[in-house]
Amino acid sequence: MRKYVIMGVQGSGKGTQSKLLREEFGLVHISVGDIFRWNVRNHTKLGAQVRRIMAAGDLVDDDLVESVVRRRLDEHDWNFGFIIDGFPRNGRQAEFFMESYDIDAVIHLELPDDEVRRRVLSRRLCPNCGMDYNLIADRPEQEGRCDICGHSLVTRADDTPEALESRLRDYHEKTRPVLELFRRKEVVHDVDGRPPLDEIQQAIRDTLGLPPYVKPAAA
Ligand code: AMP
């Protein structure tokens, strides 16, 4: 059983790296942001509660976030473990999490703010299957279309310069101290988020003592 948290500023590649770990090790990938986005897209009550907050790049209320995480983990479908992405994001969420769950490691993807701005503002998302693209480094084969399901790509509502600055501020003020809390427990593994994604995946596996990453052969 492997229980990981992945942390890093927006655009640092948390989602991409989590998916690679999920596929190989059978982990359940729990992204609080993805759960909220699904709810917004499907016009649920929860979606209505978080839509504006998310679009402004602000943080959703802790009680709501905690209940979403608790409900998701209570499903107990994570026989081989889980990787949580985008949580905890402040001191209170970290306390709740550490009281309720043990974790094996925190993967911290490091990326300078300038690189974050460059990446996030060129990010595109498939609203149908959740695949992420980047117009600089990871373009879709056909412009504006998802390579996997063919759906047209969108820009996340919170990938605007204003919302990004708000998220960067929150990250430095509220989320960085969470890392320090985890550091005291000696579970943090710092990984450089700048190299190509397969090198980052390899660095994650090296530091966690996992088997090497074998890049899938091109189709
Ligand atoms: P993400 O995809 O992780 O960047 O999350 C997108 C948005 O969802 C954030 O900008 C917040 O509005 C909200 N969100 C996700 N995770 C959390 C969290 N742990 N605490 C508060 N808000 C969150």
Description:
This protein has 219 residues and is α/β, with parallel strands linked by helices. It contains eight helices and seven strands. It has helices at residues 14-25, 32-41, 45-55, 62-74, 91-100, 113-120, 161-184, 197-208, and strands at residues 2-7, 28-31, 81-85, 105-110, 123-125, 132-134, 188-192. It is globular, with a radius of gyration of 17 Å. 30% of the residues are buried. The model has no long low-confidence stretch (mean pLDDT 91). Adenosine monophosphate binds at residues 10, 32-33, 36, 53-54, 57-60, 65, 86-87, 89, 93, 158, 167.
Distance between the termini: 32 Å
Which superfamily, in CATH terms, is the homologous superfamily of the domain at 2-112 and 188-208? Answer: P-loop containing nucleotide triphosphate hydrolases
Q: Helical content, roughly?
A: 40-55%
Instruction: Tell me the major beta sheet.
Output: 5 strands, parallel
Structural class: alpha/beta
Radius of gyration: 17 Å
CATH fold field value of the domain at 2-112 and 188-208: Rossmann fold
Outline the secondary-structure elements.
Layout: E1 2-7, H1 14-25, E2 28-31, H2 32-41, H3 45-55, H4 62-74, E3 81-85, H5 91-100, E4 105-110, H6 113-120, E5 123-125, E6 132-134, H7 161-184, E7 188-192, H8 197-208
Parallel strand pairs: 1-3, 1-4, 2-3, 4-7
Antiparallel strand pairs: 5-6
Helix pairs in contact: 2-3
The protein binds adenosine monophosphate.
Please tag this protein with its features.
7 strands, globular, 46% helix, 5-stranded parallel sheet, single chain, two-stranded antiparallel ribbon, binds adenosine monophosphate
